[in-house]
Input
Amino acid sequence: MIEKKDLDGPVELLSMQETTDDFATIFEPSCFDDYLGQHEVKNKIKVFVTASKMRGDPLDHMLLFGPPGLGKTTLAKIMAKELNVPFRITSAPILERTGDLVAILSSITAREILFIDEIHRLPKNVEEILYSAMENFCVDVIIGQGAGAKSIRLPLQPFTLIGATTKTSLISGPLQTRFGIVERLDFYQPEDLAHIVMQNADFMGIPCLPEAALTIGQRARGTPRIVKRIIRRVRDFAQVHNYNIIDTTVVNQALTFLGIDEDGLNKLDRAILTHILQDFDGGPVGLDTLAAMTGEDKESIEDVCEPFLLRIGLLQKSPRGRQIPAKKIPYLRRKLLGQITPEQSELF
Ligand SMILES: Nc1ncnc2c1ncn2[C@@H]1O[C@H](COP(=O)(O)OP(=O)(O)OP(=O)(O)O)[C@@H](O)[C@H]1O
Ligand SMILES: [Mg+2]
Output
């Protein structure tokens, strides 16, 4: 993401309009029709957006949560487009001081959408500024220092806050209750991801067969961002090998080349599962140990790998750590360690 540094103001991310041109070669959904899958959430949000548009009121504050790459930011941008209101994007880790947030809030225009990514990472004192901003469209700021300090109330334009998070458990109660709409994005079905493959292949002008799109959909960890990454790499692979159509054979060869297996697992997923299996006999094992053994940081393991492994039932979390469910151990031994099970050995 591109950063615009204002010398005496907060660090702000460029608005949507300013960033899209840089990525004109990559397809980005810009309306509800382009946003595929997530039917339930999308239908609800369409109603809220239409109602707000009819009344001319700002959309209610909204909290979107779900694992990385499922389309939280994209959905927020689409809402701004559909409502025809300005969209401003920022991220909690760069809002270090209360002044950073106050500067943004005080320049917000009526009905504007302010999108705060990773909202669970707001420092407590910055988060507290949001309470009155969200509830009463005002902020209290302290002017001066010591005995002469006084508090003044700054009115704000009525706006919409959209907060995005991968971890709702880390959002404080007072903040969560101030969102009128809370929606969860879940992993996508392979069929929906196959539509996203076709959408992107069409945009890039490469013919892709529906069954090839479904194969990618099945191996993309339920995540549009991964679909987009795979289809671009498959295109590279096809181009270099002179294939002018993407079929299942090309996809299978490309996925093997990329190290993505038939369950959608990548190298890091396999390393995690292999360590738990080989070194800890299936677990439980702590996150710190796994991070040290794989050389990966804890956040990537926890935010990117684990949600998918948990979802497909290859991993379980318990108070004592991560473990592989007993019934999956024979399958993973075969898959990762090439070991045959006692039942199989009877066949030989
Ligand atoms: N429903 C969808 N239909 C088509 N493309 C989508 C959809 N959802 C997401 N995408 C595409 O997937 C990519 C990732 O989406 P996005 O950046 O919105 O995810 P995110 O949930 O905000 O992720 P993060 O938590 O990492 O910020 C984008 O390039 C977007 O164009
Ligand atoms: Mg995002």
Confidence is low (pLDDT under 50) at residues 1-24, 344-348. The chain is about 45% helix and 15% strand. The CA atoms of residues 220 and 226 lie 6 Å apart.
